[in-house]
Structures are given as C-alpha cells and as structure tokens.
Amino acid sequence: ADGCLDDLVRTHIALHPDFPNPGVLFRDITPLLADAAALRAVIRHWTTLLPEGIEYVVGTEARGFVLGAPLAYELGAGFVPARKAGKLPGTPAGLSYDLEYGSARIEIPEHALPAGGRTLLVDDLLATGGTAAATLELTRRFDVELLGASFLIELAGLGGREKLPGVPLTAVWTLD
Ligand code: PRP
Ligand code: ADE
After folding, report:
1. Is the CB of 127 under 6 A from ligand 2?
2. What is the per-residue pLDDT across 26-71, written as a single tens digit (0 to 9) for each?
3. Contact 139, 166 (CB under 8 A)
4. DSSP, res 51
C-alpha cells in the first residue's frame, strides 16, 4: 500500500489499550467509518490492490460487513455474509473458532456461493488469523475458486498470515 493511504488509515484508527481483555491493544475503525472522505478514499484505493475477476466478496460479521459490502459494490461483485451463529434461517454451514480475545462461531447461508464462484474473503483486521482461517475453511466447503483474502489492517506480529497458507493475501495497512 502507498504511504499516503497508510497515513490516512493510521490517523483514523483509535487505540484502546486493554480492550476487551487485559493485554489487547484494540484498534477501533469507527473514526474511519464516520469520515466520509476517508472512507471513500480507503475503499477506492483498496479495490486497486485486489485481483481481477472477483464475483463474490465474503465478509465476516460485523466489521467485515461494513467494509466488505462497499468493496463488493465498487467491484461489481456480490456480497455474502459470514454471520455470527444463530442469525441465519435454514441449514447454514457453520464452524467454531478462536480469535485474539475470545471464541465464536460463524455461519454462511446455505447455497450462498456457487461451486467455482470466484471469491475474495474480506475483513477489517487480521490478528491471530483464527477468524480468517475459519472463514476460509467454511468458504471452501462450497467448492469456490478462492482468489485471496484482504484486510484493512494486518497485525503482522500475531502471525495470522501463517494460518492462510497458499492464499494470496493483501492488506491496506500492515503493522509489524
Ligand atoms: C475482530 C475482527 C476480525 C477478528 C480478527 O472481530 O473484526 O474479524 O476479530 O481477529 P483474529 O485474527 O485473531 O481472528 P470480532 O470477532 O471482534 O467481531 P466484530 O467484527 O463483531 O467486532
Ligand atoms: N480483532 C482481533 N484483534 C483485534 C485488535 N487488536 N483490534 C481490533 N480488532 C481486533
């Protein structure tokens, strides 16, 4: 990512030490979301980092929805939600996982992705990679063509990238 966009992201993220658990430095993206010019600049720049031919963006609840939907719209792709458990009707595909500060279960609607659909995973932040690895495993059950995974922020020090071996991974802003 170019330095200018790094700065735009960095200056619109609020840092909260010891949230939600002691020892976690929480990075809050709500200042970025509330700034019209910054939000538009980041979404538009982000699309330039992505592979060609994306048909589906899978975004993980909740922050992956807020960023994944405008990305899908800009790309002319569809949006598929990976929801926290218990929200979807029918017989969704589901998987439990651990993340930096807890554990959760996500579900993708039955029949949401066609076999071979060219799919990108999106979330606001890659920390330990637990969430992304679970979304990846769930998405693969649909026999999609996975084009990659992309994040607004990659906390490289937590090693999340290693949980997505072989997956082309991009981030708007990578921190050591
Ligand atoms: C946050 C973030 C990622 C995940 C990253 O989501 O939005 O999805 O944690 O952490 P990991 O790489 O260690 O798995 P959270 O579950 O807090 O949900 P939210 O989007 O609803 O705030
Ligand atoms: N998700 C996992 N770790 C996080 C962090 N440090 N800040 C914001 N969201 C997160």
Report:
1. yes
2. 999 999 999 999 999 999 999 999 999 999 999 999 999 999 999 9
3. no
4. P
Give me ligand 2 centre to Cα 24, in Å: 8
Please count the structural domains in the chain.
Answer: 1
Confirm whether 97 is domain-assigned.
yes
Locate 45 and state its tokens. 């720049």
Smallest-distance ligand from the CA of 130: 1
Q: Residue 170 Cα, ligand 2 centroid: separation in angstroms?
A: 17
**Atom 3 (ligand 1) nearest CA:** 125
Q: What is the pLDDT of residues 63-107, one digit of tens each?
A: 999 999 999 999 999 999 999 999 999 999 999 999 999 999 999
Tokens of 110: 């039955």
Which range marks the domain in which residue 84 is found? 52-175
152 domain residue, yes or no = yes
Reported residue count of the chain is 176
Note whether residue 82 is domain-resident.
Answer: yes
Tokens 């607004």 -> residue = 152
Q: Is residue 84 part of a domain?
A: yes
